[in-house]
Amino acid sequence: MSQTPEVLAELLPLFQSESEERLGSISAALEAIEESPDTAQRSDLLERLLRELHSLKGGARAVNLTQAEAVSHAFESVLVRLQSGELSWTGEVLDACNQTVGVLEQLVHADGEEAGDAAARTASLLDELRPAAPEPAKPEPPQIEIEEISPEEAELIKKLLPVFRGEADERLESIASSLEELRAGPESDERRHELFETVMRDAHSMKGGARTMKLGHISALCKEFEYAAAKLTRREVEPYPALYDLFERAAGLVQSLLEAPENLNEGLLNQMMVDLASIEQHEPAAVEATAPVAVAAAAPATAKPIATRASQTVRVATEKLDNVLRQAQEMLVAKLAMRQRGADLAELAAGLREWRQEWSRVDTDVYRLQSWVEKHDEQSDDSGIYPLAASAVRFLEWSQKRVRTLETQVRELGKRMFEDQQSFGVMVDTLVDETKRALMLPLSTLFKGLPRMVREVARTQEKALDFDVRGEDLEVDKRILDEMRDPLMHLLRNSVDHGIEPSAEREAAGKTKRGQIVVEVSQPAADEVALRVADDGRGIDTERVRAAAVKNGVLTEGQSRALDRAALLQLIFRSGVSTSETVSNISGRGLGMAICREGIERLGGSIQIESEAGQGTSFHIRLPLALATYRILMVQVGRQTMAVPTANTERVLRLSSESISSIEGKETVDYQGAPVSLQRLDRFLGMEAAGAERHSYAVIVRSGGRLVAFAVQRVIDEQEVLFKDLGSFLEHNPHVSGATILGTGSVVPILNVPEMIDAVYAEHVVAEPVDIAPEEEVVEAKPRSILVVEDSITSRMLLKEILESAGYLVSTAINGVEAVAMLEQREFDLVVSDVEMPKMNGFELTERVRADERWTGLPLILVTGLERDEERERGLAAGADEYIIKGSFEQSNLLAAISRLCGDA
Amino acid sequence: MNDLREQADVTADRERTRRILRQRARALARRPDDVELEEIRELVTLELAGRRYAIDADLVREVLAVREVALLPTSPPFVLGLTNVRGRITAVIDLRVVLGFEGVARSSGQVVIVETGGVEVAIDVRESGVARVPLSHFEKPPGDANRYVKARTTDGVEVLDIERIVGDTRQSAASLASGAQS
Fold first, then answer.
1. pLDDT tens, residue by residue, B123-155
2. Min CA distance, A479 vs chain B (Å)?
3. For residue A754, what are the domain limits?
4. Interval A442-488: pLDDT, tens
5. What sign has the CA pseudo-torsion A212, A213, A214, A215?
6. A755 touches B at CB < 8 Å
7. Is 80 exceeded by the pLDDT of residue A10?
8. Residue from the list A575, A686, A734 with its beta carbon closest to the beta carbon of B115
9. What is the ipTM of this complex?
């Protein structure tokens, strides 16, 4: 890979700091190997060494440090030999490795070739390492019957595995902390119950994930684990101390199976499963007896990762995280592009099929020609046709074979492409999801510095007060927290400034000497946070608000008289209304509260005020936990970028002169067998630019069953953006409903598709498509939207990917509560839900949906790992339309059920 | 001769000094607000089509450089487009068009953000500055002045009636929007 010098200069410091970390980790691993004679642990460490070194090598290559790359490579080969058993960890090998680390440290930082000699020496030193006496061969793990896996599946599983590992790690950590609390003795019986339930759920989720990943051993173990925890949850078994040990060992075993499946000890696994299954027949002695064996085997694996992971947090500049999110979202474009390539391939295959069909028509002719050639030879034919016919027949035979192979290859390629696209899609969605999660910060970060600020203002105003922040610490999108800082400061400053009275005045009014300001946090809905900023000060004098509004011309005297107290209070959010007597540059221009409200509404939140004269004022703020986003398709119109909401986009076609036909002088394109009016978007919007490219694409948009094709210069990409209105000056524009600001800071207007379609239909008499396409067909063309409810990220992403690939629009929720919130917000055609979930499980969700009139007839499918009959009955009794068991669950089952329930089949 | 003149100068100086001191004393005796509001007006000055104009600084929220202005289709000719003002979408208007000057509307890269009556808009300007003008230096605009000029300073700077401009242009944009819609 060759990079330009500028890029290299930027990359080098990055690479250097990365390498320092990696080399540090390599040194530590080597040290650990030296100290630990344990083979299993050594092989873990070796794997880590290989990983680190491999990354180091890649990095060195990227920044053109050829020496470092070569040495890393030599080092890597030695490690591979160690792994295969060709070399063993002798003192000589360890010395060579340590030396190499030192050389690499130099090479990474050397600008020139100073370290060249050292590099060459090291490389030869490494090459010359001789194998020691052969180690005794490791006993092969017993062969266990494992489900058949097709190569395609294996590929997908391989790609999903990291996702599952990450999830399982989290679950194991959660189990560890639950067990820790259980051991310490929970504060109440209820809490104990809750903790067992958490353990059960964690085991359950791992079971499901492992099953998806076809990790039979882990899934079987987790199943027993889950059932054991279930017994405790149902209070069928009373907890006893050795039980926690057992659970801990079970978790340890899951972990070691995850990290090194090849080290599986079947006897141990079976023993563990038996132990878990028989916790009710607990006799202290029996459990104790099996303990030492299991501990010995599981300990090294558990001790290491859990201990180190607990403290692994890193400080990252938020700007970097923002960039990561932006980049991750860019990947969504690549995902879409891949889908398009898949469609292109399908088209190519169709072309070849058409060729084959044409061929079959002339097949008999060719055959006759063939037999003629066979019957004749140069001598017997005197017309001179023979050589021509013979060569033509040879060519025809060859090309028929060739094209048939090509067709197979293209079809095969299409299939691969589809699989790659699926797994790539899962990865991208996971990446975006995880990055968004990384951008969630505890609300407490918003409150940092506020107490000091409040005290500071109180001191300068010579007021005595107490400031208190109460309530839950929820995680909120960092971008929301950033935007909230100023409004919150403003509200608090106002409270101290205008709300809280001086002590003497308070005492005279019969209040406590010290004023109170409180910020209270609560969570009124799954996706919302509420903040209450309250003071017990003098309250707002609505008479003064009225006077100020009149004085500043916001209202006339007469208008203001008509307002009640609540309406007068609302006036403080209008700019130009300030009751403050001292006018300074910072406050008192009456802009503060207006800006406050603007900021909060911009985030998709709201602010309400409540105030009693003499009693105090409180502001109620509601905010979303995450920023609401909007998907747009960016297109080039003339020379300008404009956005079409994805929700209105039916299809994007590539335009060629053949694809445009003319009906009564109006241009149309063919879509699903019907003509659709074609408009040049730049001309339609009056944005024609001299020298603009030609129109290469048509975006077919839909609104209210009507279609219009707009020709655009280019389709740039699809993005998830924040929708913003046009500002206070332009409240309405005929063809633009709002705009968005891209990562680059550019403004992109968002087109108002319904109004544009209305205008096209009003201006040009366009044949309504109803006479050609029957109503059902029009409805059918719209992709169904499905809500997937699933708490395991692995399963959630997999389901999402399967359904999206089948052409559905998929939204996801992580539990029943969130699902209900989403159902309330928009319409879905179908719900696919897991059963075991925190907060509100699948049964409860089903009951909730069935009990609500709004969702009458909404199909609901439960997909679950619970295979006990009573569970299945419960699911159907709750009102689920289908109950699909994850074990037996195949894509086609689910897809068939969905299309049946949607009435498509 | 010289002596006399010097003496006269000294006397004049003393007179002036005394006058200034008296003025200062009066100013100090007043509430500070009144000094700001009555004596001196702060203006943001701008140049349009080679003429000097000004806007009350009270109405100006900030002066910004904007990198780009996105064209907005089906909008009145005085709307240059949309720009990003600290994360908010804000319309940019061209006063040259509003004031009736010839020329092609094109963004010049700098805007003055004004706010009046809860409406915020960005005004495209080529050059801008700040001037502090005593109240006494304001005069009524000549009779033939543009309807959007509400005053003139003694140095010939025309003070624009931003409230009226924003009110009128906004209304005209709104009626165009609803006209196109129907």
1. 998 878 888 888 888 888 887 778 899 999 988
2. 12
3. 630-772
4. 888 888 778 888 888 888 888 888 998 888 778 888 878 888 888 88
5. negative
6. yes
7. no
8. A575
9. 0.77
Candidates A324, A626, A326; CA nearest to A483 is A626
Band (pLDDT 50/70/90 cuts) for residue A686 is confident
Residues A712, A718, A720, A721: what is their CA dihedral angle, to the nearest 10 degrees? -30
Residue A36 sits in the same domain as residue A181: no
CB contact under 8 A, A686 and B73: yes
**pLDDT digit string (tens) for A250-264?**
988 888 888 877 777
List of chain B residues whose C-beta atoms are within 8 Å of the C-beta of residue A745:
67, 84
- Nearest CB among A685, A745, A749 relative to B84 is that of A745
Owning domain of residue B44: 37-181
The answer to whether B64 faces chain A, any CB pair under 8 Å, is: no
B177–A755 CB contact, under 8 Å = no
> Helix axis angle, A266-277 relative to A241-259, nearest 10°?
140
How far is A386 from A308, CA to CA, in rounded Å?
82
At B177, which CATH number?
Answer: 2.40.50.180
Q: Which residues of A553-572 are buried (b: 16+ CB within 10 A; e: fewer)?
A: ebbeeeebeebeeeebbebb
Give strand pairing partners of B85: B88
**How far does B75 lie from chain A, in Å, by closest CA?**
7
**One domain, residues A123 and A164:** no
Helices A793-805 and A189-212, axial angle in degrees (round to 10) = 40
> How does DSSP assign A557-608, residue by residue?
HHHHHT--HHHHHHGGGSTT----SS--SSSSSS-HHHHHHHHHHHTT-EEE
CATH of the domain at A866: 3.40.50.2300
Nearest CA in chain A to B174: A732
Residue A123 lies in a domain: yes
Token digits of residue A237: 């078994």
Mutation target for A interface from B69, B84, B85, B116: give the one with most A CBs within 10 A: B84
Q: Is B167 helix (H, G, I), strand (E, B) or coil?
A: helix
> What phi and psi, each to the nearest 5 degrees, are found at residue B51?
-110, 155
Residue A698, both tokens: 């048509």
Rounded Cα distance between A626 and A684, Å, is 37
- Residue A147 within any structural domain of the chain: no
Residues A161 and A304 in one domain: yes
